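Re: duplicated header lines in exported structure tokens

Our pipeline writes sequence and tokens for each protein into one text file. With two proteins the header for the second block appears twice in some exports. Here is an export where it did not happen, for reference. First protein block:
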Amino acid sequence: MRCNRFLMLLLALPVLAAGAALFYSRPALGENAMHDIPMQITSAAFGNGNEIPTLYTGEGRDISPPLSWHGVPARAESLALIVDDPDAPDPAAPKMTWVHWVLYNIPASVTGFAEAIKALPAGTREGLNDWKRTGYGGPMPPIGRHCYFFKLYALDTELQIRGTATKAKLEKAMQGHIIAEAVLMGTYKAHTQE
């Protein structure tokens, strides 16, 4: 299952990042790179690699989960968040990545979002998800257990995206500007499949 490969990689990333920080100087992340903490994103609602509670899915209230992050580099000018599912439509034979949430120009001083956030921090921009609307759209996989990735990016600039942003436009605009990234992965299998 693809989730297991991703989970193993995600669990290893913080360890590898911490080890690398001990051996390599990274002045872009701070004056003393040996004391920098890698950027991390977490949720009080579910742990990395664990199941996303139904409340945050299409079978529940379809509200965004609480998110928090730390370790944002001091030189970050803005943050971006992409939530997607690379297992669509069937994790046994994925054909596409379904986009659930696209946010950018989040102020670098912001350290998270409350559950069911509606009023985004000043300056934050929203892009379209794959339902062709802005905002969060929770998991509702048609087949099998899917992996959902909450990907946070620290950027060295605020982005200017012409027209309506999408994940593809955001990723293109971020090229050459990402100074740190963090990933939280949750899983979900719809109860209607049981």
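Second protein block, exported in the same file:
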Amino acid sequence: MVFVALVGVLGGLGLLGGKWVASMADAAVNRLGSITGDGQAAAPVEAEPEPEPDPEPDPDAVPALDTVLLKRYDLAAAAAAAQGIELSITSGARSINEQKAEFEEAVGIYGSAEEAAKWVATPETSAHVRGAALDVGPQAGWEWLGQHQSEYGLCLVYANEPWHFEALTEPGEACPPLKADARG
């Protein structure tokens, strides 16, 4: 308010230009929330509210497939088709609850969580839950993609899951070594 008064006094004495004085006074008062140069009440500038914390993820929400992963798959599927090889997505993005159900089913099949974890990742570690993995088929398709994985940057991840691919490198670069199983 002192600034506004000082600008007004200096302007009134002809020491500052009229338009400049009015605009500076208006700006200062508007920021402080008082009266503008034309006598109208000005609303105070509200402080930005604190951002809301990220909500817990919806366990039933299926994430979108990663666009890079999907584009690379489309290129690979077209190349495979040109060679007479069928390549299709058998599983892609999964919700937390879908992955949890898959893991629990694997526990029933393999008898323990430790043994199931060799074949099915938990929701906390699954790339499917992040939309970052594809399972492909049929067998001729996954075999073809396994042979051409580095061309498309679609890499096999697990030695015991020849149908599971993730976009881990740039096309043309070597894929990383295989992990033994879903436990990493």
